[in-house]
Write a structure and sequence with these properties.
The chain has 290 residues and is α/β, with parallel strands linked by helices. The protein has one domain: Rossmann fold. It has helices spanning 11-34, 52-65, 82-85, 132-144, 164-172, 186-201, 232-239, 252-259, 264-267, 272-288; strands at 37-44, 70-74, 95-97, 102-104, 106-107, 113-115, 151-157, 177-182, 205-212, 216-217, 224-225, 243-248.
């Protein structure tokens, strides 16, 4: 081939075409994987510290406790807590299928399939110092390369706010269902309302809102005491035409059990919190399985 015969190749277009083909392949893998899962639930909040991971873990445990096939995906790449709250050692590593170039989630309590960045860190103190594209790449691997198999429910615990991981999950799983978690605090509800609005703009099915830390019982007289002015979650539900799925009261034992890796819905069954949470789970199932 002479110099005059060398074709005029736009290398930038070639690279972009390669990226597009790779992304199309990744999306197809995710679509195929998610098609085996009947219900996908993402648990999100506008603000950190409202108990979102507690809700996600106990939702997964509640569903698994009645014999359903359940998986839980910890999408909080930089702050993974799900393994700790389920009592799973972070030293466990996912088993890899080298032929298929895929991996198996960790098998947790009640046969829940669990995947978290915590299993990939050197130790629990190792920070994940990643920018958005790397975090989104990990999320897509968790969805497309993990061998979840056939499940009744996949619960995704998302980081707070409208970060890259949250947007990516909302875009990658079109048929997902959203559960929003907030405390009664006005600042938390302001952020929760933004999260609800974002989900509705993206045309995702918002199942409803769970109000966590919804007052507590006085340890001396048993009288209900509101930690924050009440009524915010009810108003948000009404304003956005969604359901108030439940109001979970504050109980110190919940935090203690979570730190021990013992979900309160299983280990603290007689508490007001457990009963209120079971009612919230019942409401979620009624919506999805009607």
């Amino acid at each position: 081939m002479t110099e005059d015969e060398i074709p005029d190749i736009n290398l930038k277009d070639t690279v972009e075409q390669g990226k597009k083909e790779a992304m199309d392949l990744r999306m197809e893998e995710i679509k195929k994987n998610m098609a085996k899962i009947k219900h996908k639930i993402v648990v999100i909040s506008g603000k950190g510290g409202v108990g979102k991971s507690t809700v996600a873990v106990n939702l997964a445990m509640s569903l698994a406790s009645v014999g359903l096939r359940v998986g839980i995906l910890d999408v909080d790449i930089t702050g993974p807590n799900v393994a700790k709250m389920l009592g799973i050692s972070p030293e466990l590593k996912p088993r890899v299928d080298p032929d298929a170039r895929k991996f198996f989630p960790i098998n947790g309590p009640l046969n829940i399939k669990v995947m978290s960045m915590a299993f990939l860190l050197e130790n629990s103190d190792s920070p994940v110092i990643w920018r958005g594209p790397m975090k989104m790449g990990a999320v897509r691997q968790f969805l497309g390369d993990a061998i979840w198999g056939e499940l009744d429910y996949l619960v995704c615990d998302l980081p707070p706010g409208t970060s890259d991981e949250t947007l990516d999950i909302l875009q990658l799983i079109p048929d997902e269902n959203v559960v929003v978690v907030s405390t009664p605090q006005e600042v938390a509800l302001m952020d929760a309302r933004k999260t609800i609005k974002m989900s509705q703009i993206m045309e995702r099915n918002v199942l409803g809102i769970i109000e966590n830390m919804s007052g507590f019982a006085c340890p001396h007289c048993g009288k209900h005491i509101d930690l924050y002015p009440p009524g915010g979650a009810e108003k948000a539900a009404k304003d956005f035409n969604i359901r108030l799925l439940g109001k979970i009261p504050f109980e110190v034992e919940i935090g203690i059990q979570g730190d021990k890796g013992l979900p309160f819905i299983i280990k603290y069954t007689d508490s007001k919190s457990a009963k209120a949470f079971k009612e919230a789970v019942k409401n979620i199932q009624e919506i999805l399985e009607k």
